[in-house]
């Protein structure tokens, strides 16, 4: 992969529930790359980062095939804020299927937080 690429995982500071799932799932957690901290000291800085992040346009084509697990994380998701409980297992599944099948997909759900 080209060393000119950079990857950033930007969390919406006002939507974080503090469940810690992202920290547990981070492959670099032992290095302290991603950690939970009290929000008061970082809130304004992260709000500014969030606004900046949302203005960035993805104009560079990915250096790998689009239909791979690796490329899936870079696809647009149509269920960004599902309002589920902290650490809910439904959220990542809904995120992935919207990335796979897009905005014209219909979800029928009878139970769980995402149906409320």
Give your account of this protein's structure:
The chain has four helices and no strands. The mean pLDDT is 77. By secondary structure, the chain is mainly α.
**Count of runs of 4 or more consecutive helical residues:** 4
Main beta-sheet annotation: none
The total beta strand count reads 0
Beta-strand proportion: under 5%
Span from first to last CA?
42 Å
Order of helices and strands: HHHH
Average of per-residue pLDDT values? 77
**Number of separate domains:** 2
Helix content: 25-40%
* Secondary-structure-derived class: mainly alpha
- What general form does the structure show? globular
Gyration radius (Cα, Å) is 16 Å
Summarize the SSE layout with pairings:
Layout: H1 21-25, H2 43-55, H3 69-72, H4 90-101
Which features does this protein show?
2 domains; 116 residues; 0% strand; 29% helix
Summarize the structure.
The protein is mainly α and 116 residues long. It has four helices and no strands. It is globular and about 40 Å long.
């Amino acid at each position: 992969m080209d060393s000119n690429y950079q990857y950033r995982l930007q969390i919406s500071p006002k939507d974080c529930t503090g469940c810690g799932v992202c920290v547990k799932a981070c492959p670099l957690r032992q290095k302290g790359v991603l950690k939970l901290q009290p929000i008061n000291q970082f809130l304004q800085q992260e709000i500014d980062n969030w606004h900046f992040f949302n203005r960035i346009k993805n104009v560079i084509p990915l250096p790998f095939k689009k239909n791979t697990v690796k490329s899936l994380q870079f696809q647009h998701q149509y269920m960004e804020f599902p309002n589920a409980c902290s650490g809910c297992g439904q959220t990542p599944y809904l995120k992935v299927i919207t990335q796979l099948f897009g905005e014209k997909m219909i979800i029928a759900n009878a139970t769980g937080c995402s149906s409320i």
